[in-house]
């Protein structure tokens, strides 16, 4: 009977350690991300590539905005139209918990899609 009580105590201690490790992992994951965001022509594609080989794509929304949550690294941000690069920004550093705004020129300074067409 004493062995079972000791085993239950050890199991509770192991569970507490595992719960603490899970909480630390979640906090660590949140603490190592940042974002690249900005304005670009509506409907265009923004592609980011990190120095570590990560690639992500996002379509610019109808209001001419985009945002990507990314791990901390140094990125190249490329604006694409019809599958072709039309503008590129290199060496964009992301640091923990901070975002970096990268805007691309919009026709007639209007990033949002026109209402009529």
Description:
- This is Carboxypeptidase regulatory-like domain-containing protein.
- Keywords: Signal.
- This protein is of the alpha+beta class and 117 residues long.
- It folds into two domains: 30 residues; 85 residues, Immunoglobulin-like (Sandwich), CATH 2.60.40.
- 25% of the residues lie in helices and 39% in strands.
- The protein is built from one helix and seven strands; from the N terminus they run αβββββββ.
- The protein has a four-stranded antiparallel beta sheet with strand order 3-2-5-6, with no helix packed on it. It has a three-stranded mixed beta sheet with strand order 4-1-7, with no helix packed on it.
- The termini are far apart.
- About 15% of the residues have low confidence.
Helix/sheet category: alpha+beta
> What is the CATH topology descriptor of the largest domain?
Immunoglobulin-like
Strand composition percent: 35-45%
Q: Residue-averaged pLDDT, rounded?
A: 79
Question: What gap, in angstroms, lies between the N and C termini?
Answer: 78 Å
Helicity level: 10-25%
Number of E-type strands? 7
CATH architecture label of the largest domain: Sandwich
How are the strands of the largest sheet arranged? Answer: 3-2-5-6
What is the approximate shape?
globular
- Quaternary assembly: single chain
Q: Can you tell me the residue ranges where pLDDT is under 50 for at least 5 consecutive residues? A: 13-30
Strand/helix succession = HEEEEEEE
């Amino acid at each position: 009977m004493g062995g079972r009580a000791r085993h239950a105590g050890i199991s509770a201690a192991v569970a507490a350690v595992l719960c603490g490790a899970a909480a630390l992992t979640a906090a660590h994951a949140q603490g190592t991300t940042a974002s690249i965001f900005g304005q670009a022509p509506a409907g265009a594609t923004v592609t980011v590539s990190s120095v570590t080989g990560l690639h992500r794509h996002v379509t610019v929304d109808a209001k001419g905005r985009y945002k990507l949550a990314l791990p901390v690294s140094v990125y190249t941000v490329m604006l694409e139209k019809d599958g072709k690069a039309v503008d590129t920004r290199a060496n964009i550093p992301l640091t923990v918990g901070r975002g970096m705004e990268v805007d691309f020129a919009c026709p007639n300074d209007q990033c949002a899609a026109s209402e009529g067409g």
